[in-house]
Amino acid sequence: MINVRMLGAQTEADHWLEQGVLADLKGQDAMPILGRALQKLRDSRAEMDRAYDQIGKLIEIERDNRAIPEHDTALERILKSHPPIERVSLTSTRFANIGAGTGVSINYGPIGANFKELLENLRGDLRILQVETDRTIDAFANVLSAAQKGGFASIVLSGRAPLPERVMHSVDQTMVYVQFHNRACMTAIAADMQVYPKGLEWIPKPP
Fold first, then answer.
1. Where is average pLDDT lowest: 62-71, 94-103, 119-128, 155-164?
2. CA atoms of 35 and 193, how far apart (whole Å)
3. Would you state the torsion angle of the CA atoms of residues 146, 151, 156, 160, taken in this order, to the nearest 10 degrees?
4. Phi and psi torsions of 100, nearest 5°
5. H-run or E-run covering 85
6. Residue ranges of the domains in the chain?
7. With a threshold of 0.90, does the pTM exceed it?
């Protein structure tokens, strides 16, 4: 649910940013709309902190408890055959150097060799996403004053400010992270299904 809230707030931020640019182009007061966009971006960033803490708790549970051997074996077998996936990066992405017109390859990496490594990869990628989102928020706040007297759209569309590249990069990497998280969840569920009912005897059975 944290990932859903994180992505939802990011999507709302994108929507209000677009509406703010359109309002500025029409000569309307864009400040309230853009302020809402910035707040939604900050809301998304707050959800990243919650997700980071939750993954940390899962790492502690993994460290302090012993999983059933059958589940470890099933999960590691699935992970071993899993192809590399797109991973979060501050530089090696589609939009990192868009201002310079430079094409950069997508950042592919391993999903993890075991459950502990999978969780650590999720947390590490999220930390990178937090840094990128902080940079986006700073870039947004630095040009927001332009909306008070008009000209926000001109600054954004001309490329004179880093905000457009930051926004595109942040959105792209948020989607990359959410997809990584989904893959991790599906992998764990697949392992659960392979060993069921082992370790899951407590689940109520249908009458």
1. 94-103
2. 46
3. -80
4. -90, 0
5. strand 85-86
6. 2-195
7. no
